[in-house]
Design brief:
InterPro entries: MetalloPept_cat_dom_sf, ShKT_dom
Region (Disordered): 32-51
Keywords: Disulfide bond, Signal
Protein name: ShKT domain-containing protein
Largest sheet: 4 strands, mixed
Organism: Littorina saxatilis
Bound molecules: 2-acetamido-2-deoxy-beta-D-glucopyranose
Order of helices and strands: HHEEHHEHEHHHHHHHHHHHHHH
């Protein structure tokens, strides 16, 4: 029995169109910031701001279809009038839960227009305005899809969220699986330095050693991540030792910790708080609403996020990376300096060759260091890494830097 929650499709959209990402993303960051609160228990009509194309990336959507709305941290959870309030509330709980722990992932997910939508048991994928032009194949293929960079919408199905008998994936929390993709592709890669390469490396190693042979996690690095997250939160299905094509016997956090410590550690980084996930078949909306979640257990890398945002919002068309994600990661591992021949031509944005998108501090301590005279005492580091605080941004107009 083939499992039908693949987001292999997202791999193509996300990485294949990497150039589109940089070339067209200039105006695509959502205005405002993620909040630290939620109103999961309050389902209402979607607010008018959701018709703003900057909020509903990529093009804005005809949101007439969406008649119901709730939110966690400002992240929308949407549905048509056919979806029950209960389903939206349950989805909102999962979102609230998954995004509680890491302030950076939450911040980036919001900025990139990440959102969720739920279909009723009688609705299908192409009913969502974001997917209306997709191949109808997806209507029978999927009861939930992970987000892609171009369409940062993650979908779920009411029957799965509410643990109903008509659910073809009854034993599994499919919405959590799809949301794990969203955390990865719309949040973590841009919030945790080196996150995506680390997941890819862990997967390559697991593949070489046959760790997940004969399971869905062996499909690719994306499914490896999402299946791992499901096991980490104890909502995966246990299969036989050695696998049955979909699952093996590693289906819980305790098993995963010993079996694949590398993946385990990466998952912990993205979900650093020790909150208890209330399982969908054992929980009520009241229990979920009453649960107090610990938040922001991450060590925040604010300057990394600022750098990612600066690169993505570079508006100068002559200042683009030809391979945005690769360039970003290469630049962060010192390649602009080590390999300038290639990098300064092909990774202009990431190597900060152009201005003014390169005008920011690399380190949160820059303003303080600058005030205590470090721009003058330690120019080799400071004039590059603390450009804003050391007033290097307008250097071309002969800004009179002291010293
Ligand atoms: C938006 O979609 C609704 C149906 O969902 C349709 O009646 C309406 O005409 C559409 N509006 C625009 C501006 O396309
Ligand atoms: C959704 O609800 C509307 C209005 O009640 C109804 O006309 C429509 O058939 C429903 N659609 C689906 C797919 O359930
Ligand atoms: C796993 O490794 C094998 C052997 O190196 C390779 O042929 C295969 O493409 C890899 N699988 C994936 C999904 O990367």
């Amino acid at each position: 029995m083939a499992r039908v929650v693949t987001v292999g499709y997202c791999l193509l959209v996300f990485f294949g169109n990497g150039i589109v990402l940089a070339a067209s993303s200039g105006q695509q960051l959502r205005p405002g910031e993620a909040t630290e609160t939620h109103s999961c228990n309050h389902v209402r009509h979607p607010p008018a701001e959701l018709s703003d194309p900057q909020v509903m990336r990529p093009n804005g959507e005809n949101i007439t279809f969406y008649q119901k709305y709730t939110e966690a941290y400002g992240i929308p959870i949407l549905g048509s009038s056919n979806v029950t309030d209960d389903a939206l509330k349950r989805a909102c709980y999962t979102v609230r839960y998954l995004f509680a722990g890491h302030s950076g992932i939450r911040a980036m997910f919001y900025k990139f227009g990440g959102r969720f939508a739920i279909m009723s048991a009688t609705e299908v994928t192409l009913d969502f305005p974001e997917f209306s032009s997709w191949d109808p194949f997806w209507n029978s293929r999927a009861r939930g899809l992970g987000a892609s960079w171009t369409t940062p919408l993650t979908t779920g199905a009411e029957e799965n969220l509410l643990c109903q008998r008509n659910d073809r994936y009854h034993p599994e929390d499919i919405f959590l699986h799809e949301s794990a993709h969203a955390v990865d592709l719309i949040g973590a890669w841009a919030a945790i330095p080196g996150f995506r390469p680390a997941v890819n490396n862990a997967f390559r190693h697991a593949n070489v050693t046959g760790l997940w042979d004969n399971t869905y996690a062996a499909t690719n690095a994306l499914e490896y991540w999402a299946e791992g997250v499901q096991s980490y939160f104890n909502v995966n299905t246990k299969g036989p030792s050695g696998g049955n094509g979909i699952h093996n016997d590693i289906a819980t956090r305790d098993k995963l910790r010993d079996y694949d410590p590398t993946l385990f550690k990466l998952i912990q980084e993205a979900f650093p708080c020790k909150n208890t996930y209330l399982k969908r078949c054992e929980s009520t909306r009241e229990m979920e609403n009453n649960e107090v979640l610990q938040m922001n257990c991450n060590s925040d890398d604010h300057s990394y996020r600022m750098r990612v945002l600066a690169i993505l919002s570079a508006k100068d068309p002559s200042c683009q990376d030809t391979r945005p994600l690769d360039c970003l990661h290469w630049s962060l591992s010192g390649e602009c300096e080590n390999n300038p021949g290639y990098m300064l031509g092909n990774c202009k944005a990431s190597c900060k060759v152009c201005s003014p998108s390169n005008c920011y501090d690399e380190n949160d301590n820059c303003p303080g260091w600058s005030r205590s005279g470090e721009c003058e005492k330690n120019p080799a580091y400071m004039l590059w890494n603390c450009r804003l605080s050391c007033r290097q941004c307008t250097r071309t107009t002969a800004d009179p830097l002291v010293g």
